[in-house]
Amino acid sequence: MFYPPSPRALTPDIAADLSRMLPTGVRSVGLFVDAGDAEIAAVTQRVPLDLLQLHGDETPHRVAKIRSRFGLPVMKAIRVAAADDLAPLPDYEAVADWVLFDAKPPRNVTALPGGTGIAFDWQLLTRTTVRKPWMLSGGLNADNLAEAVSLTGAKMVDVSSGVEDRPGVKSVERIREFLGVAARL
Question: Which of 7, 24, 103, 160 has its CA 20 to 30 A from that of 109?
């Protein structure tokens, strides 16, 4: 997470140290929010990332530019609250390698673009054809994971706040519980 306002944000130095501890086969994803090229370069020069996740208001043109400039696969987060929010999906599928569906945050100045613990109406995805690999995110936790996967057909999920005791502080117990549910699906 390379978005300083987030309680989950890391510096490139800390991320580089953590990346050296990853087991073989585990992919590392760098999450950015409306980052400039210099900011992304400062991270990618220090941290061996496998994927760039763009979680801001990046346009399809900007997504394509980042993908080309950094030579890494890109996942674009699409924030969803209503069916209209899915309208740009084809434009992003044309330039991104992956898509992530997340809940649109509340409309207030202090809301973060993700990791809010808010879910969206997963039924919206049942009427959506997705042509790229995709992940489901947004308010997932051990209590609602089975329903979310059943409704959407998601093969991959992303969780953050749903396994935390408080913003930025992960709970080993909640992680175990979430993984236990995921293993049964």
Answer: 160
For residue 173, what pLDDT is reported?
96
* Domain spanning 12-184: CATH superfamily: Aldolase class I (3.20.20.70)
Q: Tell me the pLDDT tens digit for each residue of 25-34.
A: 999 999 999 9
Beta bridge partners of 136: 101, 157
**Residue 31 · residue 50 · CB < 8 Å:** no
User: ∠ CA 52-68-55 to the nearest 5 degrees?
Assistant: 30
- State the DSSP string of the chain: ---TTSTT---HHHHHHHHTTPPTT---EEEESS--HHHHHHHHTTS--SEEEE-SS--HHHHHHHHHHH-S-EEEEEEESSGGGGTTHHHHHTT-SEEEEEEPPPSSTT--SS-S-----THHHHT----S-EEE-SS--TTTHHHHHHHH--S-B--SGGGEEETTEE-HHHHHHHHHHHHH-
CA dist 113 → 13, 136, 180, 185 (Å): 24, 15, 28, 28
Q: At residue 109, does pLDDT exceed 70? A: no
Q: Is 20 left (phi over 0), alpha (psi -120 to 50) or beta?
A: alpha
- The domain limits of the chain are 12-184
Q: Give bridge partners of residue 170 from the DSSP assignment.
A: 164
